[in-house]
Amino acid sequence: MILYTINGSGSDSVLALAKYLNIELEVRPRSEFRPALEAVNPRATVPTLVESQDIAITETATILRLLARRHGPELLGESEYIQTKVDELVGFMSTVVYQGYLLKFRPEFYTSVEAHYPAVGEKALQVLKSNLQSWEFLLTGSQYLVGDKLTIADFYAYVLLKWQSNIAPLNETDTPKLFHYWNTLKEPRVL
């Protein structure tokens, strides 16, 4: 399988999961393989996973689910309730939370006036603060996002919280559960 990537993107979630599950991927940076990527995904978004010439899969959450179904189904959740909570959190992260980071990192998606970029960036900080509060409320796990075992939600969260650390690090006062979770997730033995 081929994985088209950009360092620091959702690709990192897929790479971490593949490493965890000992899945061999041919990693192709988009900057070096853009024409080949556009041939299978005209939008050239990453991550893009290619299984054969005519099967390309995009979207971080979808790729994580596919790899887990095939190579580590326990990472989807061990009960129907846990699976549902994993889906809820992955959906929440890939829509609501991701939107705040998109505002911050890609203001050109929201305005064509470059002079407005700083205002979009400020709005992003407000949105992210609100999203982190909502995320804090959704946490059900003790050590991990959902329950006491690693799931694909943790792999997705890893990248988002890395981004957060570069914008405004989590703190114990505003989001204590997320703060402790992130410190656990960063430990080398976890991911």
UniProtKB/TrEMBL annotation:
Residues covered by the GST C-terminal domain: 79-191
Q: Cite the SUPFAM superfamilies for this sequence.
A: GST C-terminal domain-like, Thioredoxin-like
Q: Which Pfam families did the record assign? A: GST_C (PF00043), GST_N_3 (PF13417)
Biological process according to GO: translational elongation
Where does the GST N-terminal domain lie? Answer: 1-75
* Cellular component, GO annotation: cytoplasm
PROSITE patterns membership: GST_CTER, GST_NTER
Q: Which Gene3D superfamilies does this chain map to?
A: 1.20.1050.10, Glutaredoxin
Protein's name in the database: Glutathione S-transferase family protein
Native species: Pseudoalteromonas xiamenensis
